[in-house]
Amino acid sequence: MTVQPFRISVPDDVLDDLRIRLSRTRFTTASDSARWAGGTDPDYLRELVAYWAGGFDWRAAEAALNAYPHYLAEVAGRKVHFVHLRGKRADGAPAPLPLVLTHGWPSSFVEMLRVAGPLTDPAAHGGDPADAFDVIIPSLPGFLFSELPAGPFTRRGVAEIWHELMTGTLGYQRFGAFGGDIGGGVTQWLGALYPGEVAGVHVTTAVIATDFGERPPTAEEQAYLDEVAVYDESDGGYSEIMLTRPDTVAAALVDSPAGLVAWIADKYRDWSDCGGDLERRWDKDALLTVATLYWATGTIGSSFRQYYDYHRNAPVPPIEVPGAVTLSREPIFANFPKSLAERIYRDLRHWSRPGRGGHFMPHEEPAQVAEELRVFFRPLRTQG
C-alpha cells in the first residue's frame, strides 16, 4: 500500500470566505443570566469570533502543524490521514514500541500532539530513553482528512482499519493502543480482536461496553448507571440531535463558522478539566486551530456519523491483553467503579484516578499521560 507525505494547506480563498462570514455573524442573546448555563456564552462567542476574524494567525498555526510528519494512506479502500513520529532509540535498548493514539469527538489529531514529544523522546522530557515509542496518530474516519468508511461507522470497524494501517501499511508486527471517548472504544476493540499483535490497551474514558446479560449490575454499578442517566438529562441534547437528525444541525454548522465554533466550544468547556474557564486548557489559538480544520475540511457533519450509526455498535467482547485505565476527571466518571472495567478487561493491570485532566487529557495533561503510558507499557515492550 502506498503511503504519501501530506501537508496541510488551506487555500487563501477559503480563509477569505471564512473572514467574511465571521464579519457578518449574527449573535443570539443568552437564555440565562448565568454565563454558559444555556450553552456557549454569547459574550464569549463574540470575543472568540472577533479574534478568529481579526487576530488569529492560521498560517502560523498551519506551519506549526506541518512541523509534524503527516501522511495519507489508502486503507480498506478509503483515505486515512495520520501523523507518524519515530521514537529515539536508546543504545542497547529494544526498538521503540509502536503506539497508536486515537482521539474522540469533537476532537482531532491535534489533541495528541502535545504528548507526542514526551513519548518519542522521553530523555528530552526527563524520562528514561528506553521508554521511547513510535507514535502514530490517525484522524478518525470522517474527521478532517480521513474519509468515511464505505459502510457504517463502528468502533470495531475503525479498529479493523487501524489494525491494517499498523500491520499492513506500516509493517509493525506488534503495537500498543491508547485512546479516549470514541478512541477508547476503538482501542478496546483492537485489544479484543487482535491479541496476537496488540501488546496492551490503555484508555482514559472507561467505556461501558457490556449488556449485563449474564451478570446483572452490582448495587454500586447500578448507582453509577443511574447517575449517568441523570447527567445525560442535562448534557445529552447535543448527542440526541446527532443520533437522530445529524444532517439538520450539520447544515447550519457547515455554513456558519460562528455556529461551528459555538458547537465545539460548548463541549470543550464542559468536558475539559477547566473549572468553567475554557482557556485554562484550550487557549483561543488552540481552540481555533481545531475549528479552522473542521471548517476548511467541511467535516463537522461527517464527524457526526459515529453518532448516527451508534446503534450498530456491538458490546466489546472480553479483552485478554493487558489493560489500563487512567480515568478522566469528567463529571460523568466521578464515581465510575473499577468493577465495570473489570467486566471487560480480563487482565486489568493499571487503574489510576489522577484527579487531573478531562476528556482531552493528552492535550490537557501531556506529562501525566506520557508517564502513565510509560509505566503501563514498560513491562510489555518485549514479548513474553
From TrEMBL:
Keywords: Aromatic hydrocarbons catabolism, Hydrolase
Catalytic machinery residues: 181, 307, 359
The keyword Lipid biosynthesis is annotated on this UniProt entry: no
Source superkingdom: Bacteria
Residue ranges occupied by any Epoxide hydrolase N-terminal domain in the UniProt entry: 3-112
Transmembrane segment boundaries: none
A Pfam family of this chain: EHN
GO biological process: epoxide metabolic process
Claim: Zinc is one of the keywords in the record: no
Molecular-function annotations in GO: epoxide hydrolase activity
UniProt similarity note: Belongs to the peptidase S33 family.
PANTHER family (alphabetical): EPOXIDE HYDROLASE, EPOXIDE HYDROLASE 1-RELATED
Protein name: Epoxide hydrolase
Organism: Saccharopolyspora elongata
